[in-house]
Amino acid sequence: MNISINNRSLAPEVFDSEAELQSLIEKNPNLLIHHHESPIIYARREVNLPDAGYLDLLCIDEEGTPIAVEVKLGRNAESRRKVVAQAFDYAADLSELTIDELDDICGGSIEACLSALELEENLWKRCGTNLRAGQLKIIVAVDETNESLNRMVRYINDHSDLDVRLVAISKFNGGEILVPNIIVSGNGQEKVVKKSKLRSGDDRVSETFEALIRTYNQTAMFPTTGNAVTYRPIQIEGWNKKIHYEFLRHPKTAEIGVEIHNESSSYAAVSNYLDTLDGVELRGHTLAVAKRREGSARGRAYIKFDENTEPGIIVDAMTALIERTKDEIEFSMVSNRTAKKFSYWVTSDDNND
Predict the structure, then answer these.
(1) Are 113 and 39 within 8 A, CB to CB?
(2) pTM of the prediction?
(3) Residues 45, 50, 54, 58: what is their CA dihedral angle, to the nearest 10 degrees?
(4) Of residues 319 and 128, more confidently modeled
(5) What is the C-alpha to C-alpha distance for residues 127 and 145, in angstroms, rounded to an integer?
(6) What number is the average pLDDT over the span 287-301?
(7) To the nearest 10°, the Cα dihedral for 31, 37, 42, 43?
(8) Confidence tier at 78 by pLDDT (50, 70, 90)
(9) How confident is the model at residue 195 (pLDDT cuts 50, 70, 90)?
(10) Which of 65, 142, 202, 307 lies deepest, with the highest CB count within 10 Å?
């Protein structure tokens, strides 16, 4: 495809590397969307996901929807089949993360990105909800495509609940002119139709989760709060709200998590305590601890159950988790505050000297 500028015909040029195309998208993320769509904002490049490897680019839209961008050049033999497998891999890996864990992996750029949008205070929470529910978008950006790749991306959209877009970007005049061509728009505009096809399954899972919450709250000393369909926090009076217990439903894996979260970067001592719980047996169930980025003060410990597990077993595990950890967490919170005060006093004395 040639274009004409000032009566001068320009031919498309070859990208030097995938890194060049990544860089151009980083600077111009709205190349990936239609002109009538809400703008998206770049968040991070080369995101090192726990299991799926490096995601080329991460963006976010005004609805708080995470957008995973995979960049491939047509001359790369992997650009057809491997990109399809990667789409599922990235989606699965991202949906296993909390918003705090993803922000840690991205070095705090998610929080900065959402703040830059300046739309509403709850955008952080909405982004976290989308992440947990697996409601994200995947964009495959290429310099050239073919019917084989087009067909595979269309198939993913038609036969899964993933929203995958295919965009071909042409480069002219040394990169000063970039022309996007959205080959496959994704199923974003068809989500209502797709959800109606899956409604019976979604309702079954939702009813199972709601039954679990009702069973827990009937006898709970610390009841759940809110009405989110994928998670219910348990807030302890006097605690920082970012430190809480939580029932978490994982739609992609059909699992229920019994969890304790420290989503605050101000309480490293709490996360240090949570790290000691890895592998601990709790009434026949084994606790696991989420991986933390080096230097991160946020943490999470959890037990996962199949969604069909008897609600009483899951409730018993949450009760046991609270009984086992509540006092230690409170002690860690106090220790954390004491350490901060001591650090402040030492720093003040040094300054006075």
Answers:
(1) no
(2) 0.69
(3) -30
(4) 319
(5) 31
(6) 86
(7) -150
(8) low
(9) very low
(10) 142
Residue whose C-alpha is closest to residue 175's, from 26, 6, 7: 26
Burial per residue of 195-224, b for 16 or more beta-carbon CB atoms within 10 angstroms, e otherwise: eeeeeeeeeebeebbeebbeebeeeeebeb
Distance of CA 351 to the CA centre of its chain: 42
Report the distance separating Cα 114 and Cα 121, nearest Å: 9
Work out the number of other CB atoms within 10 angstroms of the CB of residue 190.
13
Measured in whole angstroms, how far is the alpha carbon of residue 114 from the centre of its chain?
13
Structure tokens at 31: 């190349």
Single-letter amino acid, residue 313? I
Neighbours of 233 (CB within 10 A): 18
Q: Which residues contact residue 94 at a Cβ distance below 8 angstroms, ignoring those fewer than 6 apart?
A: 49, 66, 68, 102, 131, 134, 136
User: Nearest to residue 38, comparing CAs of 65, 71, 11, 76?
Assistant: 65
Question: Residue type for 289, please?
Answer: V
Evaluated on CA atoms 219, 224, 225, 228, the torsion sign reads negative
